[in-house]
């Protein structure tokens, strides 16, 4: 049984709590920035590495696949052996992956480096678990919201920074910057984040980890390769079927395991289920914008006027308001959760996101419309990202916080892949054969799809249960 936190934890000075939060925010921002920093440079990387668009797409896909597979395992290891220890190891691997990418001589080496970098997604759930363990209870909702809002801000900043560095220096500086940020984050964590006072007893569920990893690889590989291989092709259908079989096997194994990686009881709890479905919808809606807005901005105006002919830098700057508004959105989760509960912060975030999506679907012919309406999307994104871990923390035992939030993050990653592939499918199906431009109808359809999935998220959010104490395995599996 987990021992209670020592009295010294409650007596930690306010300055020490601020330093912990600073270290965690810096670490999360460094990851979030590099999640999207390569997006503006994909066409340039295709040319300079003498490769094909299919292979250059794997610069993003490899990162997402690696993140999805490694995050729940690393999060669980953090719960078992110490969150500070695992975060330190992840940041070291992250810095090495960045240096490898900066020195890559071909697309294969760059993809391999991105696989290593994917481990860094684990810093998000581990950071949130550190917040829950180290900060006073009354500060936890605010801290979780701020950290989660930083993920949205960093993702938006990645597009801006990626454009600036690609336009004015070299794509290699994208990863040099990542290595510097990883090193700074590592030093902060070592200096300011205390060693864990509370760890869960148990072991890593190796069979569960293997089944989860293989099932995710099968499903995400099918999603990423569907447009190239054909959605009804035997390889894609076979991968989907394999993923489903492996997930079914995972459920059977986890139900029979005393110390499971995936607690099936948690997944069947209504609040946790709402948070996971919300993460899937949010990931899908977010990537609609990450792909459509820069593409619209950079496109030379076509016959229907779609496009601004902007530089990579300007395309990124148009997304800057969404990056900035994500921070106050995340910070607002604490007060809203305290007054009304995290489910209403989640519902409000989805409603704001959908409002911004509707506005940009109706009017996107001017640059100011992109900037202002995406700012509303960013505000909603900050609320959503802050509320999701709060809903989970309200529902699971403290010793499983990192693992449960880690699962939520990989579900959001799956949503990101779904969103990117749906957006690509819309563009392909609605673009004239042989045309060198994307019609306005394709962009409008993508924006409406984003509004639709986030409206669904707003409808589901109130179904989360308001609790004063987290669930235990016995209450949901007994």
From TrEMBL:
Signal peptide: none annotated. Gene3D superfamilies: MFS general substrate transporter like domains (1.20.1250.20), Multidrug resistance protein D (1.20.1720.10). The keyword Metal-binding does not apply. One of its GO terms (cellular component) is plasma membrane. Pfam families: MFS_1 (PF07690). It is a multi-pass membrane protein. It comes from the Bacteria. Residues 20-469 form the Major facilitator superfamily (MFS) profile domain. Keywords: Cell membrane, Membrane, Transmembrane, Transmembrane helix, Transport. It is found in: Cell membrane. GO terms for molecular function: transmembrane transporter activity. The chain crosses the membrane at residues 19-43, 55-74, 86-105, 111-130, 142-165, 171-190, 202-223, 229-253, 273-296, 308-332, 344-366, 372-393, 414-434, 446-465. PANTHER family: BLR6921 PROTEIN, MAJOR FACILITATOR SUPERFAMILY MULTIDRUG TRANSPORTER MFSC. This is Major Facilitator Superfamily protein.
């Amino acid at each position: 049984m987990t021992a209670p936190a020592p009295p010294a934890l409650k007596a930690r000075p306010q300055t020490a709590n601020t330093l912990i939060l600073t270290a965690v925010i810096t670490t999360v921002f460094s990851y979030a920035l590099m999640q999207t920093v390569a997006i503006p440079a994909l066409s340039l990387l295709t040319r300079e590495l003498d490769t094909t668009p299919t292979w250059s797409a794997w610069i993003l896909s490899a990162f997402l696949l690696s993140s999805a597979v490694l995050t729940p395992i690393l999060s669980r290891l953090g719960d078992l052996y110490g969150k500070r220890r695992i975060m330190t190891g992840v940041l070291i691997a992250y810095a090495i992956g960045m240096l490898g990418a900066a020195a890559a001589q071909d697309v294969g080496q760059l993809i391999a480096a991105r696989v290593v970098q994917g481990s860094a997604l684990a810093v998000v759930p581990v950071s949130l678990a550190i917040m829950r363990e180290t900060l006073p209870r009354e500060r936890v909702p605010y801290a979780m919201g701020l950290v989660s809002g930083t993920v949205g801000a960093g993702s938006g900043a990645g597009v801006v920074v990626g454009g600036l560095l690609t336009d004015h220096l070299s794509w290699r500086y994208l990863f040099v910057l990542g290595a510097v940020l990883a090193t700074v984050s590592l030093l902060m964590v070592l200096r300011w984040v205390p060693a864990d006072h509370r760890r869960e007893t148990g072991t890593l569920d190796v069979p569960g980890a293997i089944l989860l990893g293989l099932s995710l690889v099968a499903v995400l590989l099918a999603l990423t390769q569907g447009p190239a291989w054909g959605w009804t092709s035997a390889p894609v259908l076979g991968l989907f079927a394999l993923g489903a079989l492996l997930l079914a096997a995972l459920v059977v194994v986890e139900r029979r395991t005393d110390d499971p990686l995936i607690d099936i009881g948690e997944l069947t709890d209504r609040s946790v289920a709402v948070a996971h479905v919300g993460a899937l919808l949010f990931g899908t809606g977010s990537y609609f914008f990450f792909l459509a807005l820069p593409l619209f901005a950079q496109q030379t105006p076509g016959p229907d006027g779609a496009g601004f002919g902007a530089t990579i830098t300007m395309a990124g700057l148009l997304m800057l308001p969404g990056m900035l508004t994500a921070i106050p959105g995340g910070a607002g989760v604490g007060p809203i959760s305290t007054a009304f509960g995290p489910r209403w912060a989640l519902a409000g975030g989805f409603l704001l996101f959908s409002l911004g999506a509707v506005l940009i679907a109706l009017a996107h012919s001017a640059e100011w419309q992109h900037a202002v309406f995406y700012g509303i999307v960013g505000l909603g994104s900050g609320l959503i990202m802050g509320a999701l871990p709060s809903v989970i923390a309200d529902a699971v035992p403290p010793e499983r916080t990192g693992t449960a939030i880690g699962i939520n993050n990989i579900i959001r990653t799956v949503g990101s892949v779904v969103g990117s592939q749906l957006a690509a499918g819309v563009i392909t199906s609605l673009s004239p054969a042989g045309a060198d431009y994307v019609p306005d109808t394709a962009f409008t359809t993508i924006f409406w799809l984003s509004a639709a999935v986030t409206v669904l998220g707003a409808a589901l959010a109130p179904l989360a249960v308001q609790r004063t104490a987290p669930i235990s395995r016995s209450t949901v599996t007994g």
